[in-house]
Amino acid sequence: MLAGVGMAIAADAPLSPTQLVERQQAGQAPLLLDVRHTDEYRADHIAGALNIPVEELGSRAGALGVPHDREIVVYCVSGRRAARALETLQSMGYSHARVLDGSLNAWRDQHLPLVHDGVAAAGQSH
Sheet holding 50-51: strands in order across? Predict the structure, then answer.
C-alpha cells in the first residue's frame, strides 16, 4: 500500500459548482461524468456530462475516451456514488479525477442550469 507515501495518487481537490461553470464558460471544461442511473440522468443533468452509472464504470471505462491524465469531474446526487466512482477511476490509473463539491444537490441549490432529456421520472404523464 502507498497510503503512507506523500506522492501516492490522491484525488484532486473537489471542484465547486461555481468553478465548473467558470471553466465551462471559458472553454476549459473537464470531462464531466454523471455516475447516476440512466433514468436519473435523463430526468436532469449538467450540460455536457457523460453518463456511466457507477456500477458499470469498471467495465465501461473505455467509454470515457480520454487519456489517463485528463481531468475528470464526477458527480451524482449527494456525492456517495461519486466518491465510489472516484476510487474506481483512481484504481484504473486516472490521475486527475475529482468530485464536484456537493454533487448535484449543490448545483441545484445554486439554481444552475440543468438539461432535461425526457419526461420527469416522478409520476405518469399519460
Answer: 50-51, 31-34, 72-75, 97-99
Whole-structure pTM value? 0.84
CA–chain centroid gap for 9, Å, is 18
To the query of whether residue 76 is one of the catalytic residues in this protein, the response is yes
| Mean pLDDT for the chain overall | 86
Is residue 6 in some structural domain? no
Q: CB atoms < 10 A from the CB of 34, how many? A: 28
The catalytic position among 35, 72, 76, 104 is: 76
The residues pairing with 31 across neighbouring beta strands, listed in sequence order, are 72
Q: Where are the alpha helices (DSSP H) in 61-102?
A: 80-91
In a domain, 93, yes or no: yes
The Cα–Cα gap between 110 and 124 comes to 28
